[in-house]
Amino acid sequence: MANALIWFRRDLRLDDNPALQAALRAGQSPLCVYIHAPEEEAPWAPGAATQAWLHRSLLALDADLRARGSRLVIRRGDSLAELEKLIAETQAEALHWNRLYEPASIARDTRIKQGLKSRGLTVESHNAALLVEPWTVQTGSGDPYRVFTPFWKNARQRLDPQAPPAAPARLPEPPPRLAGLDVADLQLEPRKPEPRWDTGFWDDWQPGEAGAAEMLEVFLDGAASGYKEQRNYPDRIATSKLSPHLHFGEISPRRIVAAVLARRWPAAVQPDIDHFLSELGWREFSHHLLFHFPHTASENLNPKFDRFRWAKPDADHLRAWQRGRTGVPIVDAGMRELWHTGWMHNRVRMVVASFLTKNLRYHWKHGADWFWDTLVDADLANNTQGWQWTAGTGADAAPYFRIFSMISQAEKFDPAGKYIRRWVPELAKLPDSALAAPWEQPALLRQLAPAYPGRPIVDLKASREAALAAYSGAKA
Question: Is 364 in the active site?
């Protein structure tokens, strides 16, 4: 039986893994390898939070492989050079991997495929990350979509309700002498003298395929019913929280869709299910946009904003935003949730992004860079699309006049103040009436929360008016 290398990247699962299935269908003996080469993803090498998750995800994948009689062979270095070494050491006749869609990864993978194919090796890439490939969904004129609704109407028709292939029960053991590193050798976790800033992550997350499957099951049994409305409230368990598992490929979007469509939902719940599927559609849309417009990871999709008058960042104000010390409770709660858990509720992501890009009027890249380093679901396509949407510079962008009211967002979506009190505990003693805008009751704030900023770092009303004026000029 010929050996085939299965090159794992962000597809850290055995269930619905097309590269692995392709080797098995071809009668090849799969050898599972992971090559650590973050510099090849520059300028978007993985951030600190995603590296901490990756450590545990690799451990989980290796454990799953060992339970099936195999193991994960880990190497570090130039991907092509390491693959060539592995091919020589194993006499592999084929190489399979699942595609990545970021610009740097596409260029690297194309070079590797061309180089190895020219030497007579069978090299195949597969789709494991998306529901539909970016080049298959086009407008009537053959162009990529820039608006979500018609994109999803087209893409949704292509969804496959069939359950994808499950993980194989057994896999062959790699040659005993095939050397590899331990996961710890990659030094992905925070190291001394750094404090273990990731400790709080693991109260909320279980990296790996089993954790992803459990998260999906919990969501379908609970929060899926009522999802369309409840997902907007950050104080509730009302979202799937599958985004980091999707980012690392610990679960496939096809598996999620199949699981959703396999259930019989009451008619009253169907709008919730449709909305959840549309959120998967937004993920697809973001990846398709990045594929067709790769410059948008660092540049505006809408060129009208290339001359926009962004404010010069004040270092103290930027740090106050990053650390949740802006004096605006809903913003500070979100930024502290991010720091403690590596994740932030989507509604609050839009709020903190609006504060940065419109009230402070800082370039969206400052926010995107911070999220990239601190989110465990730091996905280049989603991160880029999210920030450009709020800033008004991207596809389906929020209109320039849509500047989130920090006060009304808190009052509407955290009416009992549970979210703010959890993440900004120094405000816990304030009455509900003072939580959204405590600076409006300065005496009470000084008495009950003296450690909290006495006023926001920027006047919300004046900054809103200044942003409207600046954005009006850009649109004109």
Answer: yes
